[in-house]
Write a structure and sequence with these properties.
Length: 212
Amino acid sequence: MKLTTEEITYPSSDDQPMADSTIQYQWITTIKGGCDALFKNDPNVFVAGDLLWYPVEGNNRICQAPDTMVVFGRPKDDRRSYLQWKENNIPPQVVFEIRSYSDSQTKMAKKLVFYNRYGVEEYYLYDPDDKELTGWHRVEGLLEVIEPMSGWVSPRLNVHFELTEEGLALYRPDGQKFLSYLELEQQREQEAQRAERLAAKLRELNIDPDSL
């Protein structure tokens, strides 16, 4: 009798929405985009949003899709999922989760257990509705709660965390704040307006701004 081994498939979707609300989606894209920009010149830092991560070869039930994950030591190639055994067995070192109004405490506890078990070094959880930020950092093999979070600097990302009455603010090593696409567009418009006002003043002085 001939034995056959059926190939295991690792789905690229968990059939769950990326976000349950506009504010959750905005935070996911802001953090993911900020991490992308932070490491845009490093070909060996992979950043992904809502990508299924499978840590164990041969078991497609063990998986998680962090809202944002950052993997140091892996190229920026396109992926349908993150199969850890095909990535030099490197797990995501940093993950972010944005809590939704529909996320139960049990669901969030299971995520913490997963990230602790499979090697995440830094885990950050932000609740935009309650403006609550919690972080964990791996110490002696286990994820330990970071206290306090406000003022914390990520060892891996070198990103500075602040928590104010308005909510979470993330700052790059150069002091630039993580901004949403709309905030970036508003910033560009303000810079263009300032440049135009300066050019107008120079022309009033009979100075061609294009000659400078």
